[in-house]
Amino acid sequence: MSVTIRDVAKLAGVAPSTVSRVIAGSDRISQATKERVYEAMEKLGYHPNYNARSLAVKSTRSIGIIMPRSTEQAFLNPFFPEVLRGISVRANEKGYALFLSTGKNEEEQKQAVMDMVQGRRVDGVIVLYSRFDDPVVDYLMNKNFPFVMVGKPAHHASKISYVDNDNILAGKEITQHLIDLGHQRIGFVGGSRQFVVTMDRLAGYQEALSEAGIAYDAHLVIEQDFLPEGGYQGMKQLMQVENPPTALVVVDDMMALGVISALDELGLSVPEDVSVASINDFYISRVLTPALTTVNINIFQLGYQATDKLLYWLENEEADLSPTIVGHELRIRHSTAPVAALNKGLSE
């Protein structure tokens, strides 16, 4: 026997009309009541079939955007405004509005997504990150709700629609550039290892070292936040090792700003004393002094293509599970130099 709204209402201790208003996303229902209703729905295994054509509810013509846990912190990184620009352009072409969702912690983030999905506020969502053991992705998969990820999923990649760069190759190519310049002591300043992008770029770094016959040194690998402050702290840590690096692979351009700031504070010049190479190619990277050697990952296209995949799902009621890999390009500028030049400078 199928579970009904009346069953949910009885378990939650509310009227059936209250359950209906919670599902419809009414703002007049208290958060405590919403949570009781959602808990009852979960316990009874009740949820609307969002994808069925027979639903009386019309399309919302809205796409949900799921940010990392802290929106304030996310918008300090130019990646998110640029990927949102790509999403907005494609959504606007099809007449869709955007609905932004986040939370201060894991619990708040999942609750915000539940409100968005069960309240039928959006037709589908785009997740702007990929991390290990993410309850939000697990929830969306269990609900079979249309969603696309920007970033390779940590698990079940063959069952999830996603758009990404080849971050392993990007990490390998930027490291190889430094190896080609003669560097042997190459540090790695990465973001949190809970994010797949960090682990993929680290894997590329390790692969390049291995193929060049350079031993991997865990003391040269630092994990910090994806912000200038993270790069600053990471650089301070790296320069305390017994044999500090002559070159650095930084996982994100904003972190590279902090790295360069820390080097300047230590009286070291880029690239005369230490070469710095990064990934993402934000606008600020081109106007820095020196201009930053980095990998352009076509952030706009990541957002545009992710939206295109989601719209395909909404229009065809079927997910496109083939990965969309957006190309990247190494941009060699003035923050990297041959190690010979460094050695010459030190001997003078």
Automatic annotation (TrEMBL):
Q: Which GO terms describe its molecular function?
A: DNA-binding transcription factor activity; transcription cis-regulatory region binding
Entry-linked CDD domains:
HTH_LacI, PBP1_MalR-like
Keyword line: DNA-binding, Transcription, Transcription regulation
* Coiled-coil parts of chain: none
Tagged with keyword Electron transport? no
Q: Read off the InterPro entries from this record.
A: HTH_LacI (IPR000843), LacI/GalR-like_sensor (IPR046335), Lambda_DNA-bd_dom_sf (IPR010982), Peripla_BP_I (IPR028082)
Q: Which stretches make up the HTH lacI-type domain?
A: 3-57
| SUPFAM superfamilies documented for this protein | lambda repressor-like DNA-binding domains, Periplasmic binding protein-like I
Among Gene3D superfamilies, the record links this protein to: 3.40.50.2300, lambda repressor-like DNA-binding domains
Q: Which residues cross the membrane?
A: none
Spell out the PROSITE patterns in the cross-references: HTH_LACI_2
Q: Per its record, how is this protein called by name?
A: LacI family transcriptional regulator
